[in-house]
Recover the amino acids of this structure.
């Protein structure tokens, strides 16, 4: 007799398993806020909402605001450990922290800004994921790790986002290597390769105007930027039992961009 299907339940929607303890870095960003909001609509869970300079403002008792700028591996380990101890364990890490530090052509980029791009978009996900996987292995109940990438990285980025794209392409390699390492312990590692999502990211890092945003949206086959809630829905699917046979994959959310 097979066990009951995890899909047959009221509402027929992907949800994180009840009681999940989920650390979200970049929770203060556009995509992070959308994810936390959607998680709070689902079953009871504990959410570590991490921001670098911003404190995640929430009165919901399920949200543990964590703020700590990352300056290296020790900070990444400290955030994972802080959350794990406060939440009583760690079932999932969602790494959404990221940024772009230079708006000019890469030929003119100062070394310090190259390093910042690589640090937040590649070094940090590596150190965060490594710390999370080590904690999940000791805990012994499996887990989920979700990283992020960008569709433009598959095409060499643009002149203005070349180092960022290199770092994001690196996270795709992380997803594959970590998935191989985690599989024996039931730790599934995946990523979302975002296209153009209207999360505030482009205004924040590249000071894009409304007119530039509208022009960019016209390049997307579906003629719009993605909604952060659409990104949250995909991430929740990847954290739910609906995706329990999926690991080592980057799932594209692009509206057909770059086709
Ligand atoms: N939106 C898109 O179209 C798109 C496309 C491809 C990939 N992505 C990726 O998706 C992720 C989330 O994007 P988003 O749209 O939500 O961006 P966002 O609104 O700019 O949010 C960025 C988040 O990263 C945090 N952060 C920035 N620098 C950090 C640092 N040095 N250390 C730790 N945390 C840092 C920010 O914290 P504070 O607010 O506290 O500074 C914020 O929570 C990013 O990694 C981004 O690269 C987005």
């Amino acid at each position: 007799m097979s066990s009951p299907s995890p899909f047959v339940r009221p509402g027929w929607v992907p949800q994180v398993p009840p009681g999940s303890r989920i650390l979200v870095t970049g929770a203060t960003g556009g995509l992070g806020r959308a994810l936390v909001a959607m998680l709070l609509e689902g079953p009871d869970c504990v959410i570590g909402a991490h921001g670098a300079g911003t404190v995640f403002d929430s009165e919901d008792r399920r949200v543990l605001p964590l703020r700590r700028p990352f300056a290296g591996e020790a900070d990444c380990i400290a955030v994972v450990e802080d959350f794990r101890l406060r939440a009583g364990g760690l079932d999932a890490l969602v790494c959404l922290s990221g940024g772009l530090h230079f708006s000019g052509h890469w030929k003119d980029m100062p070394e310090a800004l190259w390093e910042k791009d690589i640090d937040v978009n590649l070094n940090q996900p590596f150190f965060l994921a490594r710390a999370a996987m080590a904690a999940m292995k000791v805990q012994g109940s499996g887990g989920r790790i979700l990283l992020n990438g960008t569709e433009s990285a598959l095409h060499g980025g643009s002149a203005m986002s070349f180092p960022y794209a290199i770092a994001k392409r690196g996270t795709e390699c992380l997803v594959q290597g970590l998935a191989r390492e985690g599989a024996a312990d039931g730790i599934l590692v995946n990523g979302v390769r975002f296209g153009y999502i209207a999360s505030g990211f482009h205004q924040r890092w590249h000071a894009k105007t409304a007119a530039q945003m509208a022009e960019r949206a016209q390049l997307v086959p579906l003629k719009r930027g993605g909604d952060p809630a659409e990104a949250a829905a995909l991430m929740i699917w990847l954290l739910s039992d609906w995706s329990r046979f999926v690991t080592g994959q980057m799932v594209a959310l692009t509206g057909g961009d770059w086709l």
Summary: The helical segments are 30-41, 73-87, 111-139, 162-182, 201-206, 210-217, 228-239. The radius of gyration is 18 Å. The first helix runs from residue 30 to 41. The pocket of NAP is lined by residues 26, 28-32, 51-54, 69-70, 96-99, 120, 148, 150, 194, 196-197, 199-201, 204 (CB under 6 Å).
